[in-house]
Amino acid sequence: MNELNLTKKEISRLEKKFQEFQRTREELYIFLVSYISDYQKFRASSGKRRYLRKKYALKNPKINYLFNSGDGFYWSVRNIAIVLGRARSSITRLFNKMESSEVWQKKLAALHKTVSSESGFLIDVYHQDIFDLILDYYEEDYLRRFSQPRRFGVNPAPNINDLHKFWSYLRGYQAIQKSIQAPKKLQVRPSGRRRFKIFEAIKKFFWG
Predict the structure, then answer these.
(1) How far apart are CA 123 and CA 121, in angstroms?
(2) Is residue 2 in some structural domain?
(3) How far is CA 106 from each of CA 34, 75, 102, 142, rounded to the nearest angstrom?
(4) 77: closest CA among 86, 69, 195?
């Protein structure tokens, strides 16, 4: 990576931020696998809600109905906001930003459906891959802001292409490390305290 025009300090900052993104992805994955598995346990809506609210009472996310379309579960804007610890209006603004870009608009549209809710109203829902897409967007936004000219300091801002190359290198390196490590049993059904820590970690990442 010597051909990249990045300082040691910039590389250190990028590596630290990359690890933050990766930890957040893992925490989200653990929660989603656990919650969806629990969601599928009951057919009766009332029993399902009571079970989920009791099990997740430490944080009590109050996630409502999920839509199963065969290719995965679809989440409403309200549910997405609850999982990420954001206001619904914040997620709406984020999606509006995505839709203003041709590239991100296509990615968002590929995960979107309009369905009828339990009460008969049409609502917008998004495939469970929406959480990865949101993190992809935040990663891209972080690199864009990282490449902006510095108000103070001697060193010029790094080139956005160099940032993307180094970010891709980090992703590739991590994938190699995971492939050569001994496989570990993933805990997809965390305890109550673990669920609380997962939510706190997600909120800390998105709220700062």
Answers:
(1) 6
(2) no
(3) 29, 18, 6, 20
(4) 86
Q: What is the pLDDT of residues 187-202, one digit of tens each?
A: 444 555 555 455 555 5
- Predicted TM-score (pTM) of this structure: 0.76
Question: pLDDT tens, 82-134?
Answer: 888 888 999 999 999 999 999 999 999 999 999 887 777 899 999 999 999 99
Confirm whether 83 is domain-assigned: yes
Whether 18 is in a domain gets the answer yes
Range of the domain at 113: 8-207
For the chain, what is the domain count? 1
3 assigned to some structural domain: no
| CB-CB contact of 37 with 189 (8 Å) | yes
Q: Token match 């990865």: residue?
A: 132
